[in-house]
């Protein structure tokens, strides 16, 4: 074998090795790039389940199946970190869902907070400590969403205590053989402090026969009863209004935050479109340059074919 042939063979081996190595590096880079793109896509899907992920608020009309579907997608992709984030997000959502079930209607839905939460019954006091314990184990307990959940659970506890006190007073009154007007008014006051809802209506229905009996038995009782009931109703309405004001202010903050998020999203979408347009332009320019370079290289190769003479 001539020296020139050996030289060409050695050069071919070097070129083949370099091409193989470059191909392997390109493959590795592409694998990492694909993994990052996939992770980013999954994280974006998770983000889409939130109205505001940083503050912890979920979108409206969300259900746990959406978390399960996303978890199934991620489980086959080996994204353990994202899978754990989905698991925690679902746990947080379930806390919110169970908390809402304590009330006659949803208190927190998306970024909408009801100013007039109405507890279903005093039996809820058994569930509240469990939810508070779950909240303390959550990674979102200290952000805005977690603070709101704790505030609502505190309201639930206060209402449960008032429900029990009112229920006990009504039961004592209805079981009594002799009823004084003062005892009746004390019970009316306890019931008046409850939020307007089904449970309060049930207790008022139980009191109605007693009211009728007292009113019919004495005209003076009837006049005083009406006067006292009006004062109690006014005081109770003022009390409930003060409670509602706190939630109304919080709801106002959430509305402002929601508007801010929407504005940021518009800006982000605008930047994303510009960025994509630039990326497409750079990609087209690069492709054109590579095509031009390839043509030039091919032309140069044709004009520099090696000589057929041998070097001994």
Instruction: Give the tally of β-strands.
Output: 4
Largest sheet features: 2 strands, antiparallel
Percentage of residues assigned to helices: over 70%
User: How many helices?
Assistant: 8
Structural class: mainly alpha
Q: Ranges with pLDDT <50 over ≥5 residues?
A: 297-312
Task: Output mean pLDDT.
Answer: 80
Topology (elements, then pairings):
Elements: H1 3-47, E1 50-52, E2 57-58, H2 64-75, H3 80-101, E3 108-109, E4 112-113, H4 128-136, H5 144-175, H6 181-192, H7 198-217, H8 219-303
Antiparallel strand pairs: 1-2, 3-4
Q: Your description of this structure?
A:
This protein is 76% helix and 3% strand. With 312 residues, it is mostly helical.
Concise account of the structure shown:
The chain is mostly helical.
What attributes does this structure have?
two-stranded antiparallel ribbon; 8 helices; single chain; 312 residues; mainly alpha
């Amino acid at each position: 074998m001539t020296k020139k042939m050996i030289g060409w063979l050695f050069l071919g081996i070097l070129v083949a090795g370099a091409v193989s190595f470059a191909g392997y590096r390109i493959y590795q880079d592409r694998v990492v790039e694909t993994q990052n793109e996939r992770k980013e896509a999954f994280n974006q899907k998770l983000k889409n389940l939130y109205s505001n992920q940083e503050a912890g608020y979920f979108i409206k009309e969300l259900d746990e199946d959406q978390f399960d579907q996303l978890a199934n997608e991620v489980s086959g992709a080996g994204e353990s970190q994202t899978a754990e984030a989905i698991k925690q997000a679902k746990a947080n959502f379930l806390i919110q869902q169970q908390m809402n079930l304590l009330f006659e209607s949803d208190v927190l839905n998306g970024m909408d907070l009801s100013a007039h939460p109405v507890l279903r019954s005093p039996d809820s006091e058994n569930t509240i400590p469990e939810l508070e314990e779950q909240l303390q184990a959550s990674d979102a307990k200290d952000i805005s969403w977690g603070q709101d959940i704790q505030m609502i659970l505190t309201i639930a506890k206060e209402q449960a205590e008032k429900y029990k006190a009112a229920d006990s007073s009504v039961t004592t009154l209805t079981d009594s053989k002799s009823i004084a007007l003062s005892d009746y008014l004390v019970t009316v006051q306890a019931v008046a402090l409850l939020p307007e809802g089904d449970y309060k209506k049930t207790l008022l229905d139980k009191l109605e026969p007693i009211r009728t009996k007292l009113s019919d038995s004495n005209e003076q009782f009837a006049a005083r009863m009406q006067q006292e009931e009006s004062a109690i109703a006014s005081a109770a309405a003022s009390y409930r209004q003060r409670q509602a004001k706190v939630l109304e202010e919080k709801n106002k903050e959430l509305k402002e935050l929601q508007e801010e998020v929407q504005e940021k999203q518009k800006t982000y979408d605008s930047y994303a479109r510009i960025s994509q347009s630039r990326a497409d332009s750079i990609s087209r320019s690069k492709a054109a340059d590579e095509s031009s370079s390839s043509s030039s290289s091919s032309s140069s190769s044709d004009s520099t074919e090696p000589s057929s003479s041998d070097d001994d």
